[in-house]
Amino acid sequence: MSSPPILGIHHLKLPTSSIADKLAFYTTFLPFTHLVHLDHRRPVSGEIYGVIIQHTQTDLVIELRHNPTQAVAQRGWDAITWSVETRNDLEKWREWLCSKGIECSKVLKGVTGWVLVAEDPDGAMVRWYCKESHDWDVNVDTDERWLPST
């Protein structure tokens, strides 16, 4: 007997210490739209404890969930790596992020392609990796902040 089918990913969930700050990051600097009608509110107080955002180009849905303990635990972790076509696209993303005051890495050489890294408001790493590739090479760029060796 085989397992029942899975259609794909429904949504991803990212923890945050501040919904407002993380929401602003994803909707101002990345192409996401806040789906206000799906805000998660506590029944009695009406306090928002989660918001839903949707990537405008792929329709990927992410929940930003207020969970400061988990957000602190995931500082430096890269839960999502976005895909772009070329190394030049990474350079364009770098230029965009820098123009918005977002600190990010230079375009770094990975084992088969290139990567760009920035931090979100909780200190989680947001990465972009390009489909353009080079031959497998273990002599990759290292950077203790953006690509730690451990």
Automatic annotation (TrEMBL):
InterPro entries: Glyas_Bleomycin-R_OHBP_Dase, Glyas_Fos-R_dOase_dom, VOC_core. The keyword Oxidoreductase applies. CDD domains: VOC (cd06587). The keyword Oxidoreductase applies. One of its GO terms (molecular function) is dioxygenase activity. It holds the Pfam family Glyoxalase. Signal peptide: none annotated. Keywords: Dioxygenase, Oxidoreductase. Residues 8-131 form the VOC domain. It comes from the Eukaryota. PROSITE patterns: VOC (PS51819). This is Glyoxalase/Bleomycin resistance protein/Dihydroxybiphenyl dioxygenase.
